[in-house]
């Protein structure tokens, strides 16, 4: 048992940042596929479940997704109108999906 805990901690330290970078890359790539007028269901099919959800303007809502490294994050935001359709998208400046984020 004494050996297992340090080994598990080492594996988590090495694997978790890679998961964050991979998730960030996928979010960036998928963000470019979201278009104004899409339904919440369509966005969820492309982006998956949002990392966060906040009330938006005019009875709408805003979904956010992670993008960036462990030290420099900028969420991707998708704003829905009161009808549940995409009104605007805000992708991180680098969120083109062409390059993997660094710094993890």
Description:
The structure is a single chain. By secondary structure, the chain is of the alpha+beta class. The protein has one domain: Beta-lactamase Inhibitory Protein, Chain:B, domain 1 (2-Layer Sandwich), CATH 3.30.1450. Helices cover 35% and strands 18% of the residues. It contains 2 helices and 4 strands. Strands 1-2-3-4 form a 4-stranded antiparallel sheet, covered by helices on one side. Strand 1 and strand 2 (61-65) form a beta hairpin. The model is unreliable at 7-19 (pLDDT under 50).
CATH topology: Beta-lactamase Inhibitory Protein, Chain:B, domain 1
Q: Work out the strand percent.
A: 15-25%
Number of helices, where a helix is a run of at least 4 consecutive DSSP H or I residues = 2
What is the number of beta strands? 4
Pfam families: BamE (PF04355)
Keywords: Membrane, Signal
InterPro entries: BamE-like, BamE_dom
Protein name: Outer membrane protein assembly factor BamE
């Amino acid at each position: 048992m004494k050996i297992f805990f340090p080994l598990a901690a080492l594996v988590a330290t090495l694997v978790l940042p890679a998961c964050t970078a991979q998730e960030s890359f996928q979010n960036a790539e998928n963000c470019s596929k979201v278009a104004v007028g899409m339904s919440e269901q369509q966005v969820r099919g492309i982006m998956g479940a949002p990392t966060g959800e906040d009330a938006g303007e005019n009875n709408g809502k805003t979904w956010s997704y992670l993008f960036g490294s462990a030290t420099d994050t900028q969420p991707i935001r998708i704003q829905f109108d009161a009808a549940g359709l995409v009104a605007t998208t805000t992708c991180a400046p680098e969120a083109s999906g062409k390059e993997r984020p660094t710094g993890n």
